[in-house]
Amino acid sequence: MSFGAVFAYAEHIMNAPSPLWLALCVLAGIGGTGRGWAVTAERSELEQAVRWVAGHFATAEQLPFRFTYGGKSSVDLLPQWRLSRGERPLGGGRTERTLRFLDPDTGLEVRCVAVEYRDFPTVEWTVHFQNTGPRDTPVMADIWSLATRLDLPASSAAVLHHFRGSPCTANDFEPFETPLPVGASRRITAAGGRPTNSDLPCFNLAGPGLGWIVVVGWPGQWAAEFAREPSGDVRVTAGQETTRFTLRPGESVRTPLMVVQFWEGDWIRAQNVWRRWMIEHNLPRPGGRLPPVQMAACSSHQFGEMIHANTANQRQFIDRYLEERLGLDYWWMDAGWYPCEGEWPRTGTWEVDTNRFPGGLRPITDHARARGVKSIVWFEPERVHAGTWLAENHPEWILGGSGGGLLNLGNPEAREWLTDHVDRLLTDQGIDLYRQDFNLDPLPCWQANDAGDRHGITENHHVTGYLAYWDELRRRHPNLLIDSCASGGRRNDLETMRRAVPLLRSDYIMEPVGNQGHTYGLSFWLPYQGTGTGSRELSPYLLRSTMVTHFTACFDVRRPDLDYAMLRRVLGQWREYAPCYFGDYYPLTSYSLEATAWMAWQFDLPQEGRGVVQAFRRDRSADECVVFRLSGLDTKARYLCTDLDSGIARSRSGEELETTGLPVAIPQQPGDAVIVYRKVPNP
Fold first, then answer.
1. In whole angstroms, how far apart are CA 543 and each of 300, 516, 673?
2. d(CA 630, CA 190)
3. Which is it for the CA torsion 302, 304, 308, 309, positive or negative?
4. Please, which residues have CB within 8 angstroms of residue 527's CB and are 6 or more apart in sequence?
5. What is residue 300's three-state secondary structure?
């Protein structure tokens, strides 16, 4: 049976006698729980957040952070220090509250800046420390930017939802559920100093009908622990993993950003409130607009990244994509456009190699722009190879010296040079989107440069400098979109995601089953993400397994034998349904990478009355048809459900789709189906 007949086959099964229907269709195990139309924050959730803020930021008695100072706990010290408060509206339904504590003996100022959201049950805060005195401070240690208890009775069950990070595996972003009975604890940390290298710093602690989302925003080495106490309460601590240092006169540091969201109901609904908060208050808006659904293309697989690229072949590839009407938004120039002796990891000389690119990259970016295509260019400024310009001319900026290592962004002089230099390259070379990679675990470099009484200080200053570098680039280039990459998706914490989007969420690319799992897991947290494919054997199943909000094509468009008609069709369909990725997310199956499984999900835009269901049947799945009960629909409305390949459509009520379900049949192994739905007038 042809791929385009998928929906017709499902219709045939639906119209079959009842025994055949029961024999051929399987009911999916997730979804259809009556979550209600249009996910919004409930009044009771908002009130809970207001009460929590009032109880934890009004006085020094129940502050949600903790540290030791000179061997004494902040719980005992801060109530004795001078306290001043401030409050100001920030716009967008936000209020900033500031608490300042000053130690009159040593001059240490502790400033907690919290932001309360009126439209979401969410609060965030960051704690800043500054030595305003004339001498080094006593030792500060065990600085936890979150240290609090979340109330649960001992008789209640508690489950911690947490997720793998992106170590470049098929199971990147895999979701986990860890029960927390009384007496149990779970500690989770980053690996090597890159925040999403091993685990996501994003957690959902679920009790019966209520819970809390806890997120750490820190582009460095973080740690979080959830411990169930005899009372049933869950003690939560989180922050930079290692802190034990003195502050020099005038020196300042900060804690990770902490975010807590309060929720009621079920945890998947809570994740959709989180997704809406991410879009409304966090996703970068270059030029004042959300980044759109977009497609880029590159020739990295054909020319060894950019090692064998030149001006002529870059222009050739741009022209070929456009000749085949493949809808290109960006042309992507990857690693190796600088002098590197034929080895792209030799970073540290940030000038265009004019032997391969006479006139720089500008002839390519101008060529693309004249055809309506913008440009992406890859950088990796923090990793410095021996023998490059930075290592030879400024070894004092390098954690590792002239032998190469990490460019110390905690050094203001180094950061200012980098900012000015990259600013010039962006302008002179006509670069529209700045892509920053980071193929180095920085933690050993940071730790090797910490003195005995300064553990964690190098990391803290580097992280602060990294964020300041991006903030200044965005100030100078207000229309600039930044792509965060660190060997794929190893630096996608919240602070980074407020400034950038991940156009390559993982370096584990192209293989369809793993990428289905990546979309499944990461969509709980990030509404905007990207990946791509360029396998020699292209198919709708492979393409759709790697299509999300951003898609990068790695096709060898020099080949005349590619099925360009199929590519145009599948890409055109994706353009139609991809805006739904900004909507509410509902997994329709359990997470699995097994070849015998199906995987499916739903993205719903209730404000537009439309959405999409994507389903994938793996190559050894015995089930030809699965029924998925959808969520988030208006049960009193009717929806026209259309298979994008066959064009066959059927009208169903929202109540039917949520209770009886949507049948999806896929005869191929492997195969996939895309069903779009739109609200239509009742007859």
1. 18, 11, 12
2. 35
3. positive
4. 275, 278, 279, 283, 549, 581, 582
5. coil
pLDDT of residue 8: 36
Structure token pair of residue 195: 């925040």
Find residue 295's DSSP bridge partners: 551
pLDDT tens per residue across span 578-601: 999 999 999 999 999 999 999 999
Measured in whole angstroms, how far is the alpha carbon of residue 304 from the centre of its chain? 27
| Domains in the chain: ranges and CATH | 3-39+581-680 (2.60.40.1180), 43-276 (2.70.98.60), 286-508 (3.20.20.70)
The CA distance from 259 to 56, in Å, is 14
**CA distances (Å), origin 389, targets 370, 392, 394, 439, 478:** 34, 5, 8, 19, 29
**Per-residue pLDDT at 376 exceeds 70:** yes
Contact 302, 334 (CB under 8 A): no
Distance CA 118, CA 92 (A): 9
Q: For residue 586, what is the enclosing H or E element?
A: strand 584-587
Q: Which residues pair with 294 in a beta bridge?
A: 550
Alpha-carbon gap, residue 66 to 604, rounded angstroms: 41
CA 437 to centroid of chain Cα atoms: 15
Tokens of residue 226, six digits: 């959830």
Q: How far apart are CA 330 and CA 375, in angstroms?
A: 5
Residue tagged 């900004």 (tokens): 582
CB within 8 Å of 370: residues ≥ 6 apart: none
CB 224 within 8 A of CB 194: no
The residue type found at 345 is P
What are 40's two structure tokens? 């919004």
Measured distance CA(604)–CA(577) in Å, rounded: 10
Whether the Cβ atoms of residue 486 and residue 163 lie closer than 8 Å to each other: no
Q: What is the pLDDT of residue 58?
A: 83
DSSP state of 199: B
Determine if residue 527 is left, alpha or beta; phi over 0 gives left, psi from -120 to 50 gives alpha, anything else beta. Answer: alpha
- The answer for residues whose C-beta is within 8 angstroms of residue 212's C-beta and 6 or more apart is 150, 204, 205, 260, 261, 262, 263
Query: Are 506 and 166 contacting, i.e. CB atoms less than 8 angstroms apart?
Result: yes
Q: Where are the beta strands (DSSP E) in 70-174?
A: 72-73, 82-91, 94-102, 108-117, 122-131, 140-144, 146-150, 159-163
* Tokens coding 606: 């209730």
| Residue 550: burial class (beta carbons within 10 Å; 0-12, 13-18, 19+) | buried
Q: What is the pLDDT of residues 92-101, one digit of tens each?
A: 899 999 999 9
